[in-house]
Amino acid sequence: MSDSVSIDPVVRAEIDSRLAKVASEEGVRYLMAVESGSRAWGFPSPDSDYDVRFLYVRPRRDYLALGKMRDVIERPIVDEIDLSGWDVRKALGLMLKHNAVVSEWIESPIRYLADDPIISEIAALANRHFNPRGYARHYASLGKGTVARWFEDGEEIPVKRYFYALRPAFSIRALRANPDQRPPMEMQALMEACDLPPSLVKQVQELIALKATTKEKGNAARRPELEQLVHTELARADDVPERLDPDSFKQEAEDLFLKLVDP
Of the four listed, 106, 188, 199, 259, which is most buried by Cβ atoms within 10 Å? Predict the structure, then answer.
């Protein structure tokens, strides 16, 4: 996938350097490294972090060790660069539980490294065994968690928190409209997929423009129509059809993992 969103060359060079340092320190091989969060979703603020997310694989001997190894790598946020990633075994395990995060990373429009060929196979696995209701419940949980924090700082809602509830709500709406397709990651494509009324599209576009010039904690004027849509859609996750897992799903995920660590 091409890099369709511009990243400052100086920042990209720093990210490349940090990724190389992590790989050297941890002894891992990257399968992909992408941007997640608001920059990839299409509604960044001027001070948005660079949410660098990656999947990695360790040498085979690490998976055979007696001690339990950590399956997450994280680094402190420095200069707005937030660097963290998952072991591929963790990622595949979460896919089996219909966690949508790996699917979104795969769809990110911003790539920091060339994908390993195995990523296309993981994407195909996700498509074959995509459970729309499982994804809808994932998004409902995310959205409800954000809505619960809307008024932590008073009666106004930070524009960032609006978006962190809107995107899960739109994803559920898109799944209700087309349960055979995983929701798009990027906001404009997501709005098209969930067939919003023009008046709501206009309000979201206004919020995107506001967020582009407002710091992360900046507030937005209340949008009752959007808020009602959020509450309605987050309550409708179970209206999305369920696709039961075939017996082969777990075995196919296992085969991909063994292909990486025991070629």
Answer: 106
